[in-house]
Structures are given as structure tokens and as C-alpha cells.
Specification:
Radius of gyration: 22 Å
CATH superfamily of the largest domain: Glycogen Phosphorylase B
CATH architecture of the largest domain: 3-Layer(aba) Sandwich
Strand order of the largest sheet: 3-2-1-4-5-6
Number of strands: 14
CATH topology of the largest domain: Rossmann fold
């Protein structure tokens, strides 16, 4: 695993930013600003100064009725968001699109249970553009792109690679897209991020007018080998069946507020007292923070995302912050208690048949509320 599990996450709602991002955001987007300054305002020019023909709906895929060809899907940069693209990816595949995923190195682990090839994302912008160009030349079909991220840079890289892209008209990038899609009005309300991604996929398929977009239920396939990896890690730690997975750490903040609930240590002690086996599986670089937050848990070695997904699916219960592991637990059908304190559950809650949320964006729940939810889920009331 190249990136810690919680480090792959931010509050999972996809932010919509305007052109002013160049003044305030800096970083990768700022690095391309001066490259395009000479063509600023020249919306009709391509990357080499040549006019870009207007593409029909048939060509871009919107409203098309022809056989779908190759489609490169630019995945979000964070684990929770990648899980929330699953309903959109399933729809695209069901309708006949030949998918190639383009995302962070961990994406190959996450989608190992699918036949979709994963084009690895390189840290250097030039290497990413070169990889996209090579993919486009190798594809027998149209080689179009669908962009789930809202960022200017994701559109710029695809445009530099000579590809036609569909994505939301955000971050001042509409002129770079062959098919810019308006952000749905629902997104300014309580639209879930999963529905936001699904709307984009339905628009590419020409089905955006079918009615209000509802959030789909992410369902992740786990390859057989991943189950073996999870069982081996549990055995090495001396843990048998019937364990509870705690996910106490989240990197970063949300609007200056810590995104991690502080009660995991107390909860681990209570679970041990009740005869349960609380397990923590930190990603690389997270172990010190996880041990400080939850010293009484059993710690497993870091696992790749496939084995980690199997670990969550095989547990009696998962307790997680609003983070990638929480979304992953929901996607594999695990029984999950998601603890919220600063982010908006309407937009970023994990979705699953066995998901229960405690707390909300107004503040963290009291420890007793989480403890009661855990006791109910594990049927521990009689032992306390």
C-alpha cells in the first residue's frame, strides 16, 4: 500500500470551485496557470493553437445510440470518493462501455476484483500526459474520457493528451472539455456524492433526463486472494473470527476542524471488557497515531486495499470516522457504525444495508451514544 488508508481521504463531498482557485489554491493547478496564460480567453483554440471543432452529441457520447467504445475514467483522488463512483462505473459497464480506470496507485488494489484495466497515475504531470497519449493511440475505439474529479488539472491533462473529455463545468475548465456538464441543481442541496457521480455517468450515456438522481449503493467485489491475505494477517496477530475493526485515524482537517472522534480508545477498552477483539489495521505511516488513539486494540500489519476490504467484510462490526475505510466497509456489506462530527452526512455518508450513522455536522456525539449503538449492533446489552 503506497498511501495510508485515511490519508487517501478528505470529506468526501466533491467541492465545486470557481476560477478564483488560481489565486487561492496554488499547488498543481497553479503550476499550469502560466502554461495557459498565452491562450487565456481563446476558448476555441486547442493545445497547439489549432481551432477545436465543435463536437456533436453523437461524438461525445451524450445522447448516443451507437455501440459504446473505449472510455477512460479518471477516478477521484481519495478512497472514499472512489468507492462512491461504483454505481456509476457499474452503470457504464452494464451499458457496454469498455472501461479503463485512471487513478492513484492504490486503485489497482481497490478494483482488483474487476476486469477493468487500471492505468497508473504518476506523480509527475508530464508522465501522466504521456501515459494518456499512449493509451489513446493504443485504443481501437474513440478513446474518450470521463472525469469524476472537479479539478482544472484533470481536464488540462486529458486535453494535452489530445482526448475528448466529459466532466462537470467546474474550476473554470469548461472550455477544456468536449462536453462540459452543468452541475445539477440538487448538488447545492442535499445531493449525495454518489448521486453526483452517477448523474455524470448518466449524462454521458444520454440518460440524464430520466428524473431526480438518487444515490446508488456501492458494491465492491473482493477477489478470492484478498480473503487469504486478511485471514493470514489475523492469524499472525492471534485473532480468531468474531473481531471488531476500529478505524480511529483520519489525516487532515475539515474547515479547520479535526475529523477523528476521540472516543476510540475508551471504546476499545469497553469491547475488551465485554470479551470482544477490537482490531486496528493502520496504513503505512499511521501506526503511531493509531496506537496513541487506541492503545488497547490488537494491531495488524498494513494490508493492501483488497485484503483490507476483506478484513472489513469478515468482521462482526466496523466503527469508523467519515473516512475511506468507512465507505469501503459500506461497499463490502460490513456492519458499520459511522461516527460523524464535522462533515455533512447528507453528502458524504457511507451507504450500505448495514450502515448506521451516529452524530452529524453540528458536532460529535457523546461517547454513550456511540457505545449504545455498538452494544446494540453486537447484542452486548446483557453483558453490561
Amino acid at each position: 500500500m503506497d498511501v495510508p488508508f485515511s490519508a487517501l481521504n478528505r470529506p468526501s463531498g466533491a467541492s465545486v470551485r470557481g476560477p478564483g482557485v488560481f489565486r487561492s489554491n496554488g499547488g498543481a493547478d497553479m503550476a499550469v496557470f502560466w502554461q495557459i496564460a498565452r491562450i487565456a480567453g481563446m476558448r476555441g483554440l486547442g493545445t497547439r493553437g489549432k481551432p477545436v471543432p465543435r463536437l456533436s452529441a453523437f461524438t461525445t457520447g451524450i445522447g448516443r445510440n451507437d455501440t459504446l467504445g473505449s472510455l477512460l475514467v479518471r477516478l477521484p483522488n481519495h478512497l472514499g470518493d472512489a468507492c462512491m463512483t461504483l454505481p456509476a462505473l457499474d452503470l457504464l459497464a452494464e451499458r457496454g462501455a469498455s472501461l479503463t480506470l485512471f487513478g492513484r496507485p492504490w486503485a489497482a488494489e481497490l478494483f482488483a476484483g474487476y476486469a477493468w484495466p487500471v492505468l497508473p497515475w504518476a506523480p509527475e504531470r508530464g508522465a501522466r500526459i504521456a501515459a494518456l497519449r499512449a493509451w489513446r493511440r493504443a485504443e481501437p475505439g474513440r478513446g474518450e474520457a470521463l472525469l469524476f474529479p472537479n479539478s482544472f488539472s484533470s481536464a488540462w491533462e486529458v486535453r494535452r493528451a489530445g482526448m475528448r473529455a466529459t466532466g462537470y463545468r467546474t474550476d473554470g475548465r469548461g472550455w477544456l472539455l468536449a462536453a462540459p456538464v452543468a452541475v445539477p441543481a440538487q448538488w447545492h442541496g442535499d445531493m449525495h456524492t454518489s448521486a453526483y457521480y452517477l448523474h455524470l455517468a448518466r449524462t454521458w450515456l444520454g440518460r440524464s433526463g430520466d428524473g431526480p438522481e438518487a444515490a446508488g449503493t456501492p458494491v465492491l467485489r473482493i477477489p478470492d486472494a484478498a480473503w487469504g491475505g486478511a485471514r493470514a494477517a489475523l492469524a499472525r496477530a492471534g485473532v480468531r473470527d468474531g473481531y471488531v475493526v476500529l478505524c480511529p485515524t483520519v489525516r487532515g482537517q475539515h474547515h479547520g476542524k479535526v475529523k477523528a472522534w476521540e472516543g476510540f480508545g475508551r471504546l476499545a477498552r469497553a469491547l475488551r471488557a465485554a470479551g470482544e477483539s477490537p482490531v486496528v489495521c493502520p496504513g503505512p505511516g499511521e501506526e503511531a497515531g493509531a496506537r496513541a488513539a487506541c492503545p488497547d486494540a490488537v494491531f495488524l500489519e498494513p494490508l493492501d486495499l483488497g485484503a483490507f476490504a476483506a478484513l472489513l467484510a469478515g468482521s462482526r462490526l466496523v466503527v469508523a470516522n467519515d473516512s475511506g475505510p468507512g465507505h469501503l466497509a459500506g461497499a463490502v456489506g460490513a456492519r458499520l457504525i459511522g461516527v460523524f462530527g464535522v462533515t455533512d452526512p447528507a453528502k458524504t455518508r457511507p451507504i450500505g444495508a448495514q450502515v448506521r450513522l451516529v452524530g452529524g455536522s453540528a458536532g460529535w456525539p457523546e461517547y454513550e451514544e456511540v457505545d449504545a449503538a455498538v452494544a446494540l449492533a453486537l447484542d452486548l446489552r446483557a453483558s453490561r
